[in-house]
Amino acid sequence: MATALRKNRIPGPVLGMLLVIAAGLGLYFALLAPRAPAELPELGAFSGAVTVDHGSALIGARLPEDALDPVLEALARVRFVPDEEAAGLDYSNALTLTLEGSGTIALLDGEGENAHAAVTAGGTTGYYRLSGSQYSAVREAVYAAFPEGVLYTGEELAAWWQDYFYPAVQTLMEEDFTTARDIEPEAVADYTFFKMLADGTAADYQVADAAGKLWCRVPYREFLALGQLYFSDGANASLKETSHYAEGADAMVFAMPADTAAYLRENYPAWDDPSASGGYTLLSVRRDLFGILTAEVADYNEVGFTEAGTLNRTHTFTLVYGSDGRYRYVSKSSRITDPMEVAVEGYFLNIGSISGITAADAEELDLRFAGELGGDMLLTSIGYGAEGHLMLLYRVNPRTGGITASGELITGTEHPWRVETDGETVLVYGSDRAWQMDASLAAASEIVLPELSGEYDLADGGNRVVYTDETGLWLWEQDREEPLLLAAHPDTDGEDGAIDRYASPRFILNGTAVVAADADADGLVLFYTRFDLEGLEKALADREKEASASRSSREEEEDSAASEGLLTGSRVGIYPGQLQALAVEEDLMVALYPNAEGEDPRYLAGAVHYFETGATFSFLIPDTGETGPALICGGRIYYFEEDPAAGEDTVFELKVLELGPAMNRVSTGPRVTNAMPHILAATRSGKVLFSFTSPSGSGMGIAATAGVTGAE
Fold this sequence. Notes:
about 700 residues, mainly beta, five-stranded antiparallel β-sheet, globular
């Protein structure tokens, strides 16, 4: 068989150069001297990363850097001899090494002294024979790098969580089992239906009854086949004993929950967010060399996340690899482990809970800070009830932690996406309507809005609205007959295909100006533009004067007004990038981004822009992802930073970054040991409400952040 791959001989001394590969430097196999006794097909540029596949073991596993040299040295000693017989073999279970930037080498164990290889590079595959001992040398070097299999942690867990273990924690947690046949049939049915909701196939079987209620009705044999995809012993005939089986229709029937399928497709909770997943997190996933998968899931429901809790429960799932490439559940076991000692040091007021709302409740409710209302901290939570979306609101005294007022707002089909307060009233934003509540939180009045199709912002209690649509940036005011086009989108159909549209407008400086993001088609912020409204009346008068002088018809005037904006914006000094957090206040805006590539990933890059002066300052702040997002309030950023010198304990210290030219960083005193802290709220005077959770104990506190300007 013809092949474009050339052979090169490798001298023994050159093997030392492979250390350079492990260090990350590019090396071309074509540079290896041709006088060596070994022969290696040329693979071109090689960057140093090698990924390994071998049947059901080590699928997609990447060689650690310290294992790279032994594998490449063993490979360099292989004598690849062109062989026509090798072309007719099945390489699906071969030991396959993928060299980043080059190609693949698939090694297939043969009988007796011979083995075979299929080498692919540049779109061409060459087939070779090699000795069985050479194959064994490469295999041993590869497997020595994975003595206990492949361990997945951190962000690698996201795919496993979505595909396997989030559905499991929603349906399989009631009892342990040693074989799949021990699982309660109801749990097998619920898991299978949950997967159908998640992948969207449940909608294919949707039917409505006489009352209009939606159901999912799946023929029994089809549902049984689906269940057999997830459980090693197969979903058995006991599924007919479940409450979901309709004998007359020979089908499995489930109530079709409203919006659940779309929500699951778009909003799977994170693998490390127990508050969003019912109290579970995925700790690790290990895959051994025989295709056995073991996963550990932390459970904070039964014995953790309470102030009196002293134990932690961990669930271990075991799954086996199938020939179709999926893993199937075999067993689940639970264990309780001893907790670590929790301590909170420093000066703070220990409040235990917010009028009975514990730290665990706060996480489950996903309490969000919405600003200061009447001197209190305003916290909100969005849930879903029989009447649709439900928002809960709490006013919290920053001195005592007690709830001074509470309220609820039923928004129905409208999902509230933002809550803000001006200190006296509360505004709740829905997609096409808004609500206003007074400081007592007792009742809400709906705000009349113009027809909207994008994000918007309110001022003067909803009497003024700034919003965007397909044309550009608009201002609607209660006392005007028609909305005003402040600015058309800069470039909605550029010659280079670029799209620049205004998005996320906000009133600033007490409603005298507007700032909007310039975003591309993917929503990536390009920059920000500011529009001052003080010149609006003059711009209107000038336009009317020009129209009356140069146009004879009302229609032409309206056409002009619809295509041209009234104001010219000025660029704000916030650099573009993929935003991780953004806060816009009356007098400033703060943006946080992932640190630049090549810089310390433990930090976020930030910038603050002051609207009054036009000054912009940059800074770095620790990435507080584990402890929840940093809180931006009143020109300060509050965050918990882990102490790297804490030894075996995990210690977080509450800190404050005072934004401005000096970027003053203050250590406030409170230190939390062996618990996960979260900042819930803050005040402009420097009060901070925080919580801490662990299996050993949880609680809440209020710190006065000593050393912060204005703190009491």
